[in-house]
Amino acid sequence: MTSLFSLKRRGALLSALALALPLGFAGAAHADQLDTITAAKKIRVAIDLAVPPYGLKDEKLNATGSDVETARLLAKSLGLELEIVPTTGANRIPFLQTDKADIVISSMSVTPEREKVVDFSVPYAAILAVVGAPKGMAIAGPADLAGKKVIATRGTTNDQELTKILPAGAQVVRFDDDATSITAIVSGQADIFATAPPLLKTINEKNPAKQMEPKFTMKVNFLAIGLRKNEPRLKARLDEFVKAQLKSGELNTIYKKFHGADLPADVTRNGA
User: Fold this and answer.
1) N or C: which end of the chain has fewer CB within 10 A?
2) Selection from 64, 71, 56, 75 nearest residue 105 by Cα
3) CA nearest to 43, candidates 107, 118, 103, 112
4) 214 with 166, same domain?
5) 120 and 47 share one domain
6) Which SUPFAM superfamilies does this entry report, sorted A to Z (predicted)?
């Protein structure tokens, strides 16, 4: 005869199993992102098209730039159609988290803060975070920013690095994308810009009288492809792509075409 204790014990065990089953099925139902991308026959890549020469539109309004060409090279190597998802600096990671894009190739620097919420491929390029100003302005370091207005693009590593070194009395004016920040400098809202060297060149092309130049470097950042956490197969495939194209020289060719210089040795050695 079954004791009351045994019945209670069996009931508790069955309840525990009932609670555990949905969790198990949920885990089994988690789709591998590389399989999902392959099945869709296209890869959605988030790129900021207002950050020349990384991403921009040409005179025919076609997407171009070093990040755009890198995305095209990746799609070709995977045998997939490329879908460019326009984004901004502040929206790059949210687009990943909300499944608006599969990956990000958008001058996104690898930082400890970002590594907490997304994964990164092997670096495919590098970018300097600098403070730029007109040639005639005397700025040699962070202390010289005291009492001055500095423009930065919200959510970028340039903004983050500037915040770390900003002296008392300095004012930061933040805009949501680089295009708006550039317009603010060109129109004279401020003369100092925390950014990357290529964007200083863009400002000079729009307003030659500015004569913007890098004054000092805040940090050298590695650029990598961003992807959602816990997608090991996709990450391995992206790493394989970057290493192969660094070794072949294709990524260096793209970088030199748009930036006028070779990739730093710290990047190219990843293809050795």
Assistant:
1) N
2) 71
3) 103
4) yes
5) yes
6) Periplasmic binding protein-like II (SSF53850)
Q: How far is CA 123 from CA 89, 146, 199, 245, in A?
A: 18, 34, 21, 12
Domain that holds residue 39: 35-126+223-264
- Helix (H/G/I), strand (E/B), else coil: 189: coil
* Structure-token pair, residue 268: 């190219």
ω before 214 within 30° of 0 (cis)?
no
- What backbone phi and psi angles, to 5 degrees, belong to 263? -60, 145
What 3-state class would DSSP assign to 185?
helix
3-class DSSP assignment, residue 264:
coil
pLDDT tens string for the chain (272 positions)?
A: 445 444 445 555 444 444 444 444 334 445 799 999 999 999 999 999 988 899 999 999 999 999 999 999 999 999 999 999 999 988 999 999 999 999 999 999 999 999 999 999 999 999 889 999 999 999 999 999 999 999 999 988 899 999 999 999 999 999 999 999 999 999 999 999 999 888 998 999 999 999 999 999 998 889 999 999 999 999 999 999 999 999 999 999 999 999 888 998 889 998 87
